[in-house]
Structure prediction request, 367 residues.
Amino acid sequence: MTDSRLQTIHAIIKQADLDAIALIPGANLHLMTGADFHLMERPLIAFFLPDRDPVAIVPALEQTRLAASGLPFVVFAWSDSEGYWGAFEAAASHLGLDGKRIGVEELRMRVLEAELIRRHIADVQLVLAGSALAALRLHKDAAAVESLRAAVAISEAALRATLAQVRPGMTERTIAGILAVEQLQRGGGRLPFDTIVLGGPNSALPHGEPGDRPIAAGEPLLFDFGTTVRGWASDITRTFAVGEPSPRLAEVYAVVQAANAAGRAACAPGVLAQEVDRITRRVIEEAGFGAYFTHRTGHGLGLETHEEPNIVEGNRRPLEPGNVFTIEPGIYIPGEVGVRIEDNMLITKNGAESLTTFPRDLTIIGQ
Prediction:
């Protein structure tokens, strides 16, 4: 596995006309090393070069975890007492990248790491390589898919257990806390994002935060949440009715449910990502709610909850086996009601599979 990933990153370097790629703690470095290093005040940078062993500048306390990756790193470690300046000088001399092009993750690399590279490597060119690096995680292998399945199973079991405890008068924040504990008790890892539980008119906030508002009978209750297994994330949204749903909630829900079904059915190898977005969106637009579907149909899912491929207008990338992404149409009518139904899709050799299987029919809870 490590050999395959080294080959992939070497191919990316050559195809992007780079001389090296520099990674700092994040999903791509996790993929390469198997270790979840944290971005903190101690700089850690790994350089990958074609036809050479990778080079890492690491805090001494992280050296053991890096060694466990199995990659043949040339390591320049530094301690808190001595500081990192000398390690960077020694690494720069070893790398020999003066005047060369180094690809960086523009959405992740901080000013600190960028300046350390610039100050120690003369005339270096830092090149935005985020798009090129997307190829590292675009196709999930069997081990990744197994972890994704496990994360989904934990989340769905935790949701069932949480729903059984929901009653009118409970706050969004209380319910979110119950769901978090239920996931942990079933073996879930760190939360990939803050759990969203929104009731009543708050459900119309696509990225709202749970608060102390009590939920009431007749309202929608929206859950958007996930967990991780070995770093791989689930991301699920379901919307329920607390008691008998209002006619408006039932109407909106039926449209979103149909859009979700159309989007899932459209997924297959060779289909353009934007075509799935169009098919999903068309259902909502034809029902007269197009103005209330305010985001893309979906996003890639893996070590991060937002990665490639994005299911959005303008993305002409054909879907390919191993792609994992969400289908999550929604209707958000401000101050009134919001409904989203989100599934995690895997493109297979002959079609597509929904890793999420939690029922999608409008379900009454809290009775």
The chain has a mean pLDDT of 96. DSSP finds ten helices and 19 strands in the chain. The chain has two domains: 2-136, 142-365. The radius of gyration is 23 Å.
